[in-house]
Amino acid sequence: MAKYLVRRRELLDYQARIQSEGEPTNSEAVECWRKYYEVLMLSGLLQIWETLQLRTEGPCFPRVLRRTKGPRADGYTVTHIVVDKLTPAMLRSFHDDAVMQQHKTPQSALQQCYEGDIILIFPGTYSGEGFHELTESITIKGEGERDDIIIEAIPYDDLFVNVSSADVTIENITFNQADNTEGILRVESGHARLVNCLLRCDGTGVTVREGASITMRGCTITG
After folding, report:
1. What is the residue-wise DSSP string for the chain?
2. Of 183, 167, 184, nearest to 175 (Cα)?
3. Global pTM?
4. So which residues are the signal peptide here (predicted)?
5. What ranges do the domains of the chain cover?
6. Which fold has domain 79-222?
């Protein structure tokens, strides 16, 4: 693990340096690819080791720390609105009996979610904190133009969006990942549904583990 982290840090620093100096030379490009494949190889070895640990001893550490809460005891659902400043115009489309909560960040909304809840994210650039443990069956939807609703990865964090939910829907959102050699989305278990999302990623892109599934419609993946 330590060697992987050191080599990954060296790769990111090297990439940043040659990019700041303009067009890389042939030798710099070759060296960059060499460093990248070394990190990729170490990442693969770690995954093999983790799989063996899971088979023989059980998990050495939990991938997802939050347990599924399920539905609320009283059965009602909440619409969580993520916006810095809430205006009356934003509420016109809701029914009078709708239960709503306002949040400054997606992480705050995700922490308050139960099964069946909806998170509406209004235009802005937000931290990706909280998206690494999507355990509830919820809908996360951007309100407005997709390019104006941006979720950014935490630099150097291995996990960005990690789904471990029976059924989660993510719609009309842009996800930006940088300074990371891992993928942008991993479906650990259950089902993920992505609609009209833009995924700007480094590394392996989208990973779906055995037994999990994903549906993507109108989405774009770059990187």
Report:
1. -HHHHHHHHHHHHHHHHHHHTSSPPHHHHHHHHHHHHHHHHHHHHHHHHHHHHHHHT--SS-S--SPP--S-TT----EEEE-SS--GGGGTTS-TT--EEEESSHHHHHHT--TT-EEEE-SEEEE-TTGGGB-S--EEEE-S-GGGEEEEPPTT-S-SEEEEEEEEEEES-EEE--S-SS-SEEEEEEEEEEES-EEE-STT-EEE-TT-EEEEES-EEE-
2. 184
3. 0.70
4. none
5. 2-56, 79-222
6. Pectate Lyase C-like (2.160.20)
